Structure prediction request, 742 residues.
Amino acid sequence: MTTTLLTNARLIDPEQGTEAPGWLLIENGAIAATGVGAERPEADKMVDCGGKCLAPGIVDIGVKVCEPGERHKESYRSAGLAAAAGGVTTMVTRPDTSPAIDSPETLEFVARRANAAGPVHVRPMAALTKGREGREMTEIGFLMDAGAVAFTDCDHVIANTKVFSRALTYARSLGALIIAHPQEPGLSAGAAATSGKFASLRGLPAVSPMAERMGLDRDIALLEMTGAAYHADQITTARALPALERARRNGLNITAGTSIHHLTLNELDVADYRTFFKVKPPLRSEDDRQAVIEAVRKGLIDVISSMHTPQDEESKRLPFEEAASGAVALETLLPAALRLYHSGDLDLPTLFRAMALNPARRLGLPSGRLSAGAPADLVLFDADKPFVMDRTTLRSKSKNTPFDGQRMQGKVLATYVAGTPVFEAA
Amino acid sequence: MTFSHSHLLGIEPLSPPEITEILDLADQYVALNRQDMKHSDALAGLTQINMFFENSTRTQASFELAGKRLGADVMNMAMQASSIKKGETLIDTAMTLNAMHPDLLVVRHPHSGAVDLLAQKVNCAVLNAGDGRHEHPTQALLDALTIRRAKGRLHRLNIAICGDIAHSRVARSNILLLGKMENRVRLIGPPTLMPSGIADFGVEVYDDMAEGLRDVDVVMMLRLQRERMDGGFIPSEREYYFRYGLDAEKLGYAKEDAIVMHPGPMNRGVEIDGEIADDINRSVIQEQVEMGVAVRMAAMDLLARNLRARPHEVLV
Prediction:
């Protein structure tokens, strides 16, 4: 039984909300103890962290790996390598593949492939309705037995409220978590941008930010009806926040996430129709971005996700309206999040509360913490190291990052999964 | 020479002196076009390809004529019938064309930004002949030239743009151009046909023609697309004509010498009364067509000068 002691680290503890110099002892793949000061235990192996940040590994809800269907865009192998290099120790994968992951058989196939191929944990989500078509619910019980940690139709909104309310009611009886995309689909159909001066100047079909609030309002009403456990995948507008706050105050079982792109970019970044900045929902105004950052700070928005969505060159090198949505972000999530730290908006424990602790808690996973007994899923990083993002260096098969060519700060030095290093910077 | 661009993708990047330079040169071409001998050799030896991914008769003819009068070899490609239908992407088409070494590429496309995308991938000068709802720069320039010749100036005028602003690239380019030249622009139309964020455009917005047209110098009507009249944006054609169609009564609110413009093709009895459209004392719609050829000649001439001034690429 080997033990590893990580010494001289800056421990980022999201549970305590603290960051302090100290050490962390790994035993049997789990965190055995942490401490501050010079008095420290003996171990078989010592690692000097050089005063750099040691935090729980990122638990990323909403990663798209394109298996089955489009392995040329991303495989479990390539996504796993990208995750390890980005400090992501658990990928919670999306079922919006083709075909959709909507049966226990497909889920088992995926889970087998995923864990054989990748260096990090993979926790699959399953579709809530068959084929993500919003008509019939999937076999929620069997899928949970097969390992589904949550149920979502991803960016497909279940427009039929009867179908959705039944699925929520059924899910509640099994204690299943439903993840939905709050959006009024009629209003947002065909939109490529957020309505406003910028979209009008560019002549792009646009959706009012109100569509997000309308979608959320409807879902909240359904939660009042059904009492299900619900997580909004991305809240990106100021207008949706009061509704979320009210629902929380009224004791509904609701949490919310947002994407790293909506936290660090705004609609003007699209500039001259740069399709790598086309995401879903579309990038918002700067006022919305600021409001969402504040909501993360207050804890109203619980989770920050990469919403990693690989797209190949062919699907992006098109006129903006026709181009595919989505951006890869497993490797850029941490440096992008650190922009918020360097700008003074969010401190490191808050960032890791949203990227590790809260998502793990919501899914009932033991990771995301730095306490004794938690799995030793860790990321060691230099929060200050500057670099220029070069998309060709990404480990993802698809290189569609909006941060290409941008100056960033923050490099992952090592990633540990169950106490074993799965990535070490050269 | 002030004009420093290698493409004409929109009005947005142009400065007021550059706009003036294009219009001044276009004035000379108006004179040339009125002679018997209408030929110049400004584009001699150059190849111009017109790629229209969207139906157009007038604009394509205007560009073709402009190129031919300046001595270019002009080729029209009917893109709707061609490889796009076979699944070839816009970029593939662009690369194929690029290999044929055209010098001027005139492009119309149904999607906003498609012409910008194309311009990034080819080595020649690209002219935007209309992309989605984004821009239609030569239309705005020809409108500006028409106004300048009719009013003797292109500043401090009250100009009303009326109708379907939301779906109109002509409106966007005109708002930008007329704003840059320090005019007061009013937009008049039903709120369902106004783009979002319009209050931030530095324009005045009206939903009533009588109020909006009061004392304007120029009335610019826009075409209402047939597919917008199905009850989705406006209740019916006849209600639209009643409230927003330009007739003698509504025109009466404008200044006595106000001119009437329309980018064509017109829907008589929908957005404009036939008699007003044909009234030679008020309507400058035919002049707009004439100015169109001259402005396009000027734009292509200036782009060609920048093209020729560019250091030659070394062939390996």
